[in-house]
Amino acid sequence: MWKDGSLEMEKNKKVMDVAGGRDKQHGNIGFWKRHNGINQQFDLIYADDMPEVPRKGELNEDFGLFV
User: Fold this and answer.
1) Within a 10 A sphere around the Cβ of 17, how many other Cβ atoms?
2) Cβ within 8 Å of residue 63, ≥6 positions away
3) Which residues of 43-53 are buried (b: 16+ CB within 10 A; e: fewer)?
4) Measured between alpha carbons, how far is 42 from 45 in angstroms, rounded to an integer?
5) Helix (H, G, I), strand (E, B) or coil at 40
6) pLDDT per residue rounded down to tens, the chain (67 residues)
7) Rounded to 5 degrees, what are φ and ψ at 18?
8) DSSP letter at 8?
9) Burial of 3 per CB tally in 10 Å (0-12, 13-18, 19+)
């Protein structure tokens, strides 16, 4: 169940969690008790709605830098 930016398991009320308690890319994902930390907050983006990633030489508008 998707609830308040967290993916919660119905059976035991644990939520999806990035290991180590940090907000980082490529971290291991597991399920842990809810503590509302940033490592338990996710944005769900459907593949069809995913914006294209800037290619080499293009401007990355999120960071204001060229790739």
Assistant:
1) 22
2) none
3) eeeeeeeeeee
4) 9
5) helix
6) 666 667 677 678 899 899 888 777 788 989 999 998 988 888 887 888 877 888 899 998 888 889 8
7) -85, 125
8) B
9) exposed
Range of the domain at 12: 2-66
Tell the residue number behind the tokens 């919660």, with chain if given.
8
Model pTM above 0.90 = no
Given a contact cutoff of 8 angstroms between Cβ atoms, the answer to whether 48 and 41 are in contact is: no
Structural domains in the chain (count): 1
Q: Cα–chain-centroid distance for residue 46?
A: 12
